[in-house]
Amino acid sequence: ESPWEMLKAILKEYKEQAVEKNQPFGFVFEAIEREMLKYEEKEKQEMTAEQENVDKEEEAILNKQMTLSKINTRKKRKEVKNVRPDVMVGGECIEKKAEY
Fold it and tell me: According to DSSP H, which parts of 27-98 are helical?
């Protein structure tokens, strides 16, 4: 268990005891509790922002790959359309018949 978790547990236990005995929790402990909550919220926001950045990077990589794939497919289609009739197709040579 980390020191952070231990401190949180101690504060929680102390607060419960103060409530049971109908005593004030104490200004110092309330201030510590507020700062801990602020810190945890900040950590959560940083993690969320970091995850969003990772997601954006992954999406950009995927978009780049998809774009390249589309470009390659277009090039292949264009090459197929530009094939001369006297090239090999399926092992047979297709030749243009000369008409005189």
Answer: 27-81
